Amino acid sequence: MTDEPPVLLTRDADDPAVVVLTLNRPARYNALTVELKSALRASLALLADADDVRAAVLTGAGKAFCVGQDLGEHAEALAADPGSSFNTVVEHYNPIVTELTELPFPTVAAINGPCVGAGLGFAMACDLRVAAAGLKLSTAFTGIGLTADSGLSASLAHAVGVPRAMELLLLNEPFSTDDALAWGLVRTVVPPEDVLGSALELARRLATGPTKAYVEVRHAVRFGAVNAMPEVLAAEGAAQARLAHTEDHAGAVADFLAKRKPTFHGK
């Protein structure tokens, strides 16, 4: 047992507008229990309401990012009542992914170690990903007779295309971070000791940008991946109209005309 909280929220020392969200069960490779999932939901709710946060990094404590569901706890739930053993999908996994994808600022996953199952789903729910060299990642679900959760059936298909997503989910073959880089799943692969620093550098860069525009980009890309062009064009126009009322847009236009470097405040 440990008195450590299951999720850590810390401010970046170099830029307090950047928050690091750390899954904190290192002895179990950050396997997901009800306690950890509930704490993650509570942390994401805090971040969603924080006016002074402009970017976040999601990572794992110790040697792993997250190896997915704690199967010991799942086995106990199956033994107690198979009919309710998957309530956690509706109560935890679906809300966590939704909350990650609806945060009002950009997010970066710092994949510092093994990233499996729902852990991979959480990483894919972030806007950008940085990964450690030499890692293996896996979907894992069919290995225990399940289909995907945490949005992976969509996020993988959008990222790598339907044929490769089918291959990754059906065959459950581990793939390397070099594969992930070649397929566009991650932005960069760095030495393990540089993962968090690289992710923080990226988050700091995003935090100084037009965060309202970044959120609109996030929604536009995800909407555009599954809708026809007329609907995409209409959604883009509506987003542009919303951004027309932001201080960031008006200020950046004025700065451009005055030949100044724009400064963004997320307003």
What does this structure look like?
The protein is an alpha/beta fold and 267 residues long. It has two domains: 7-207, Alpha-Beta Complex (2-enoyl-CoA Hydratase, Chain A, domain 1); 211-257. It is built from eleven helices and nine strands. The protein has helices at residues 34-48, 71-80, 87-101, 118-125, 152-160, 162-171, 177-183, 195-207, 211-224, 229-243, 247-257, and strands at 7-11, 18-23, 55-60, 107-111, 115-116, 128-132, 136-138, 175-176, 188-190. The strands form two sheets. It has a six-stranded mixed β-sheet with strand order 1-2-3-4-6-9, sandwiched between helices. It has a three-stranded mixed β-sheet with strand order 5-7-8. The N and C termini lie far apart (44 Å).
Helices, strands, pairings?
Layout lengths: L6 E5 L6 E6 L10 H15 L6 E6 L10 H10 L6 H15 L5 E5 L3 E2 L1 H8 L2 E5 L3 E3 L13 H9 L1 H10 L3 E2 H7 L4 E3 L4 H13 L3 H14 L4 H15 L3 H11 L10
Helix pairs in contact: 1-3, 3-4, 5-6, 9-10
Q: What's the structural domain tally?
A: 2
| Rg for CA atoms | 19 Å
How are the strands of the biggest sheet laid out side by side?
1-2-3-4-6-9
Q: Name the CATH superfamily classification of the largest domain.
A: 2-enoyl-CoA Hydratase, Chain A, domain 1
Number of strands: 9
Assign the structural class, choosing from mainly alpha, mainly beta, alpha/beta, alpha+beta, or little secondary structure. Answer: alpha/beta
Distance between the termini: 44 Å
User: Do you know the CATH topology of the largest domain?
Assistant: 2-enoyl-CoA Hydratase, Chain A, domain 1
- What proportion strand? 5-15%
